[in-house]
């Protein structure tokens, strides 16, 4: 088969419709997609050891013969073991496979295999748990530096690596997009060489050269795109001039004195709104830092000038919470606060829309219903997007378009995900960045514990004590449902031993907490079901909520005092911190329990980092070092291209080089109109597909 970059994956051997759908979850539908599906890590499988000579540190390859037929044992429901002894001329190796029943059929006595895993020693007995294996003479990934990819249920690393290997021929003769003089000035490898060696490197040097070229490329195109974004800012035209008002009048409405950080950000917002230019500002701060007060201040300023503001929240429950709190805060000042959500009755929606159009509502709180057809404003001058990473650029633009022609509204976006400033300036290159880096006094501290699986019963007892005291509990799982068929021959399932919401909630209700009121919440539920589940928990009708990370951005439940996070080692630190922020919102002592069965020292160190600090910015710095920028980029909701290779914590020098190269190119050709620079323009245009108007 001749493979081109446009060849669909369904043309590849072994990829049917079902498997193609699973690959689509990874963003893979063509051979070209495989080329840029960069590995997240590598395993050195170049050296094969004898059993007795294999080192005990790290994972290694061992060649051995199966001395017997594998033995399958079903220990209990949900747990089965396959055990087999393999041998070579130096000794025996005892293998144990958990919940991988296919191994009984896959390994045959008398045949030789290459096993890859960590060797453990108990006395004179050597063993491996869940090794990956290939039959000798048929191995694909022994004797090489093996790429390790991000996976999804039903797609193994072995399978994805095989597909990438089949796609690599279409990298031959790949046209260069980087100008020749930039490649020479920065000693960058060719595109074809880099793509081949980022997946299957010849050696460590080739891998370093490949990574440097591809990471530079990402940072270079990002820098060029940000230039166009900032240029657009200068062309946006006039904003609504909102004159300042005596701050004391607003402060008198607050039930607390603002922190110094809140006051500083209020000053920045007021200056933006009075400037005559459209404000485009990101306010980021830790959970509970007081971002909503800043949004209320902007709405108050806006109403004082006879203009309207709109706050868009990601869920109805959160929108209703904002409506109640902002109504109570701003109504005494004469600010008319309204609500518009999808679940309101037709007559309620009609009334709200009419009030917006006539100007009877000064500050409306809503969901995506705000951008629906038929919603019009008299004089929309301010847009506030709560939880920035849940809204795309296109959604903010759709709301902004309702302000009418000629004048652009002020835009204030808020994020409770603390991002290192360096990264924030890159991710949100079209926004000015404000940071609220102080927490108000009196916030309930959250005690955080890292707990092993063997302490599970004690943890259940702690749940009971909290509920007995009238408190509520979150239990967070990484998966919605179990995937028992996710494991493929020779591979460990990416979802092995993960707690799944549906089965775990059922078990808890039947076996552990039959007398408690449990609720369930996950992303596969219908919007109304999710809203009902969250409302039941917020209203106290549910005592324990078993959920996925869908609660990461949710309604405040001051009565919730305990959050338990299962398989905590599977989450990034920033996400764990965000989840932890679901508790500690009331007057009661609050706790976060991180459950893990990991044997990774690195993973345990990360979890103990979280347990030792509640400083979100410090945590985000550690997460950036450990995981790269992926957590912060999320689902490209910001409209900027996601970086796959560049490590903004470790590539600062490369970032400076890329920014300088971009600056030099744009000084010579500001519109990239010269023929030799058109490939750059085309590449940047594709990368910034979510914000196409930056090139107009």
Description:
- With 696 residues, the chain is an alpha/beta fold.
- The protein has four domains: 47-143, Nucleic acid-binding proteins (OB fold (Dihydrolipoamide Acetyltransferase, E2P), Beta Barrel); 179-235 and 651-696, no CATH class; 249-436, 3-Layer(aba) Sandwich (Rossmann fold), CATH 3.40.50.300; 446-613, P-loop containing nucleotide triphosphate hydrolases (Rossmann fold).
- Helix content is 36%, strand content 19%.
- It has 23 helices and 26 strands.
- Strands 2, 3, 4, 5, 6, 7, 8, 9 and 10 form a nine-stranded mixed beta sheet that branches. Strands 15-16-14-17-19-13-20 form a seven-stranded parallel beta sheet, sandwiched between helices.
- A hairpin with a 2-residue loop joins β4 and β5 (79-88).
- α7 (204-235) crosses α22 (652-668) and α9 (260-274) packs parallel to α10.
- It is globular.
- 44% of the residues are buried.
Features:
4 domains; OB fold (Dihydrolipoamide Acetyltransferase, E2P); Rossmann fold; alpha/beta; 7-stranded parallel beta sheet; 696 residues; 23 helices; globular; 9-stranded mixed beta sheet
Q: What's the rounded overall pLDDT mean?
A: 86
Outline type:
globular
Helix % is: 25-40%
CATH-defined fold name of the largest domain: Rossmann fold
The proportion of strand residues reads: 15-25%
Q: Report the top-level CATH class of the largest domain.
A: Alpha Beta
Radius of gyration: 28 Å
Number of strands: 26
């Amino acid at each position: 088969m001749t493979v081109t970059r446009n060849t669909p994956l369904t043309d590849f051997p072994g990829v049917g419709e079902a498997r193609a759908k699973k690959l689509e979850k990874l963003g893979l539908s063509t051979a070209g997609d495989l080329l840029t599906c960069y590995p997240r890590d590598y395993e050195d499988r170049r050296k094969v050891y004898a059993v007795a000579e294999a080192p005990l540190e790290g994972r290694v390859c061992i060649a051995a013969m199966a001395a017997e037929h594998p033995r399958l044992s079903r220990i209990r429901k949900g747990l089965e073991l396959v055990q087999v002894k393999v041998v070579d001329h130096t000794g025996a190796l005892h293998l144990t496979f958990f919940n991988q029943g296919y191994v009984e059929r896959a390994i045959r006595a008398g045949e030789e295999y290459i096993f890859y895993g960590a060797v453990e020693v108990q006395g004179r007995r050597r063993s491996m748990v869940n090794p990956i294996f290939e039959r000798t003479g048929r191995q694909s990934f022994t004797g090489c530096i093996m790429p390790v990819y991000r996976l999804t249920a039903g797609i193994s690393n072995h399978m994805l690596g095989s597909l990438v290997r089949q796609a690599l021929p279409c990298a031959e003769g790949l046209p260069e997009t980087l100008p020749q003089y930039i490649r020479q000035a920065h000693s960058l490898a060719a595109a074809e060489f880099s793509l081949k060696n980022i997946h299957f490197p010849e050696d460590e040097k080739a891998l370093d050269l490949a990574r440097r070229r591809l990471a530079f490329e990402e940072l270079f195109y990002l820098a060029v795109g940000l230039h166009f974004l900032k240029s657009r800012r200068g062309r946006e035209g006039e904003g609504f001039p909102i004159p300042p008002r005596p701050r004391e009048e607003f402060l008198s409405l607050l039930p607390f004195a603002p922190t110094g950080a809140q006051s500083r950000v209020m000053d920045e917002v007021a200056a933006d709104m009075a400037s005559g230019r459209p404000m485009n500002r990101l306010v980021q701060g830790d959970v509970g830092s007081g971002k909503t007060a800043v949004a209320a201040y902007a709405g108050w300023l806006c109403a004082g000038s006879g203009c309207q503001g709109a706050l868009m929240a990601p869920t109805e429950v959160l929108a209703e919470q904002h409506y109640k709190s902002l109504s109570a805060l701003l109504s005494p000042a004469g600010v008319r606060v309204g609500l518009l959500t999808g679940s309101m009755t037709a007559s309620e929606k009609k009334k709200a829309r009419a009030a917006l159009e006539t100007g009877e509502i000064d500050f409306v709180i809503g969901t995506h219903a705000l951008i629906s057809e038929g919603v019009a404003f008299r004089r929309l001058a301010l847009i506030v997007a709560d939880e920035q990473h849940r809204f795309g650029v296109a959604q903010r633009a759709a709301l902004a378009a309702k302000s009418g022609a000629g004048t652009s509204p002020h835009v204030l976006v808020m994020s409770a995900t603390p991002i290192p400033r360096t990264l924030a300036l890159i991710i949100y290159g079209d926004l000015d960045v404000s940071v609220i880096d102080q927490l108000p006094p009196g916030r309930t501290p959250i005690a955080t514990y890292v707990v092993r699986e063997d302490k599970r019963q004690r943890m259940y007892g702690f749940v009971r004590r909290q509920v007995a005291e009238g408190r509520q509990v979150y239990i967070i799982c990484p998966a919605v449902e179990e995937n028992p068929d996710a494991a493929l021959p020779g591979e460990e399932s990416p979802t092995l031993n993960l707690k799944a919401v549906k089965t775990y909630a059922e078990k808890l209700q039947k076996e552990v907490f039959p007398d408690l009121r449990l609720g369930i919440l996950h992303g596969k539920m219908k919007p109304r079901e999710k809203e009902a589940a969250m409302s039941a928990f917020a209203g106290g009708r549910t005592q324990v909520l078993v959920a996925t990370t869908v609660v990461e951005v949710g309604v405040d439940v001051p009565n919730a005092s305990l959050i338990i996070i299962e398989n905590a080692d599977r989450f990034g630190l920033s996400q764990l911190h965000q989840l932890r922020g679901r508790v500690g919102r009331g007057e009661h002592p609050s706790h976060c329990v991180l459950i893990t069965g990991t044997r990774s020292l690195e993973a345990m160190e990360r979890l103990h980092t979280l347990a030792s600090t509640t400083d979100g910015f410090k945590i985000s710095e550690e997460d950036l070092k450990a995981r790269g920028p992926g957590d912060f980029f999320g689902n490209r909701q910001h409209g900027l291209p996601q970086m796959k290779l560049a490590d903004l914590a470790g590539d600062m020098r490369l970032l400076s080089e890329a920014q300088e190269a971009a600056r030099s190119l744009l000084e010579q050709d500001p519109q990239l109109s010269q023929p030799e620079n058109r490939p750059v323009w085309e590449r940047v245009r594709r990368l910034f597909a979510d914000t196409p108007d930056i090139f107009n």
